[in-house]
UniProtKB/TrEMBL annotation:
The lineage of its organism: Bacteria, Pseudomonadati, Pseudomonadota, Gammaproteobacteria, Lysobacterales. Keywords: Cell membrane, Membrane, Transmembrane, Transmembrane helix. It is a multi-pass membrane protein. It comes from the Bacteria. Belongs to the ThrE exporter (TC 2.A.79) family. This is Threonine/serine exporter family protein. InterPro entries: ThrE-like_N, ThrE_2, ThrE_Dicarb/AminoAcid_Exp. The keyword Metal-binding does not apply. One of its GO terms (biological process) is succinate transport. It comes from Dyella soli.
Length: 432
């Protein structure tokens, strides 16, 4: 085996190699921890390594990121898990990497700039709370809550939950505490609404604040890793997302039970007008873009794409009688085709931007309906027969699973096809 100096620039000392590797590994860790796709993290890190004169290999795992210099024993390990999604930090780190590679930024200043990028603040608590309330209310409109009183109750519940998430984020290190607490708050407030008959859309008052908690980017990144045969990492990402979803359901049901409610009333179906549906979809996209620390300058991009996709979905369901699963697939295929060149050009994290654009299609309503039916089943609620409850669990659970599956396929397939068969620039510079 060759010594590390064999693959380093002439005259480079061992200490300089260590510093270079530390900078390279730090950049990789920042990208990995803040929601960048695994393949793009690997590609960016390898390019940065070559600019330092080092051929590096990146070995990402859940809980650990290793960057090693090929044909040497030199390596750097960061104990880190990809729990966060922060587009501002990803963009800042990617910009630094590109400038170092293009030699428009001295390599010696890269590490200090990366430290600043890693310390960029997320959006303010006020903006976070306001957009959580706005996003939940927008999802309420999409699912049929058109009364002002119901929308205000949804917004209040989501806003209180968002504030609790921010407070826990500062005082608790466990990532599961935030969605559990927010969903429990939503369940408790919904129970109060049900017992006081304060809304005709009590079920949506319970569900919509929980829909903004769904960990979509982790689901997409996990699916992408599986498609790339990074099996262990993909399964880990999906397992993490699955635990989050489970805790959201547990928190919601626990909050309802604490308020003395063991089952949710059935809301009457409401036909949502086209304009209201599309505008609400745009507001939901803006909400999730805020959650992922997207700048005001970039927000119009996913908003426009998301509104177009939701308009297509609405038309397919309303005029063609297409099932919600098929409509989600077609709309997400459209989003995948449009958003791929955007993320390539702007160096944005694909999963975060893609999920932001299609968040209004996530089947949170069906998922929570299934969980509610399970609760009624085990509590022996007399309002429905066992067979009816089992049918509801299977129907809603299957619909939720298929929508998530079809959305994932619709978003990923165009990305992979364009990478393989698209323009040379896309294939060269934009791995998934």
């Amino acid at each position: 085996m060759k010594d590390a100096s064999d693959c380093s620039p002439s005259g480079t000392t061992g200490n300089e190699r260590d510093l270079s590797l530390d900078t390279i590994a730090f950049a990789a860790a920042l990208l990995f921890a803040n929601g960048q796709t695994t393949e793009r993290t690997v590609a960016s890190t390898e390019r940065l390594g070559r600019s330092f004169g080092l051929n590096v290999r990146v070995l990402p795992q859940w809980g650990e990121l290793t960057v090693e210099v090929e044909r040497t024993l030199l390596s750097d390990v960061y104990p880190i898990a990809p729990l966060g999604v922060d587009m501002g930090r990803v963009i800042a780190v990617s910009d630094i990497v590109e400038k170092v590679v293009d030699q428009s930024l001295p390599r010696e200043s890269a590490h200090s700039l990366l430290e600043r990028a890693g310390q960029l603040h997320t959006v303010s608590t006020l903006r976070f709370v306001l957009f959580a309330a706005l996003g939940a209310a927008a999802l309420g409109v999409i699912f049929g809550a058109l009364e002002i009183q119901s929308l205000l109750l949804i917004a209040l519940s989501a806003g209180v939950g968002a504030f609790a998430r921010r407070w826990l984020g500062r005082h608790a290190s466990n990532p599961f505490a935030q969605p559990l607490a927010a969903s429990a708050i939503a369940g408790l407030l919904a129970a109060i609404v049900i017992r006081t008959h304060a809304s005709n859309a009590a079920t949506l008052v319970a569900f919509c604040p929980c829909m903004v908690l769904i960990p979509g980017p982790h689901i997409l990144n996990g699916a992408i890793d599986l498609a790339r045969t990074r099996i262990s990492l993909g399964i880990s990402r999906l397992a993490y997302a699955g635990v989050l979803v489970l805790l959201i359901c547990v928190g919601l049901l626990a909050g309802l039970a604490a308020g003395g409610v063991t089952f949710l009333p059935s809301d009457s179906p409401v036909a949502v007008p086209f304009v209201a549906d599309v505008v609400a979809a745009g507001l939901a996209v803006a909400s999730f873009g805020t959650f992922f620390s997207m700048s005001w300058r970039l927000l119009p991009i996913p908003i426009g794409i998301g509104m177009l996709a939701h308009a297509v979905r609405w038309a397919l369901i309303a005029f063609a009688g297409v099932h919600v699963t098929t409509a989600a697939l077609v709309a997400c295929l459209l989003v995948g085709v449009i958003i791929t060149p955007v993320v390539d050009r702007l160096q944005l994290p694909f999963a975060a931007l893609a999920f932001s654009a299609v968040v209004s299609m996530m089947p949170g309503y069906y998922l929570f309906e299934s969980a509610s039916a399970l609760l009624r089943l085990v509590s022996s609620a007399p309002q429905a027969s066992t067979m009816e409850l089992l049918t509801g669990v299977v129907r809603n659970g299957t619909t939720a699973f298929l929508v998530v599956l079809f959305m994932t396929i619709g978003l990923i397939l165009p990305r992979m096809l364009l990478e393989r068969y698209g323009p040379a620039r896309t294939r060269r510079s934009a791995p998934l």
